[in-house]
Amino acid sequence: MTTDYITIEGVANWIRVNVKNMDTKFGEKFTLELDVDPPTKAILEKTGWRGKIKTRDDGTEYAKFSRDNKAVFNNQETVLGPPEVVTSDGKPFNDFIGNGSELALTLEVYDTKKYGRGSRLKKVEILNLVPYERKEVVENNPPVD
Questions:
Q1: What is the CA angle 57-59-63, rounded to 5?
Q2: Which residues constitute the domain of residue 35?
Q3: 48-99 pLDDT, tens per residue?
């Protein structure tokens, strides 16, 4: 069984890569969506990545990448925790990342016993940070633009 490590770059949205904003809709996961261009798609296909590429209303293609917070290996639950997140100069980054940020992702693409190739988000490098802005919603009032 082999594991490949690949790095891809793109503009990201819906970035949830730290414990404070982990996606808990279907279990505990660290997730993000990355815009993909034809060269990036070719890299993913070459490794056997089995994810789906979707298209937004504006025609931009993207893929969702994730990392489980916990996984079971040999009948033992193991906490994997969040992916490593660093700035472009290698310093750890522990804050929220805004939509539209340019990121470099390192993915582990590995063989599984039942399902072919699996993948896991291993590292996120912030190439160009867009500050995260939280919109406040006032109760019983729509958000104001």
A1: 90
A2: 3-128
A3: 888 899 999 999 999 999 999 988 888 888 888 999 999 999 999 999 999 9
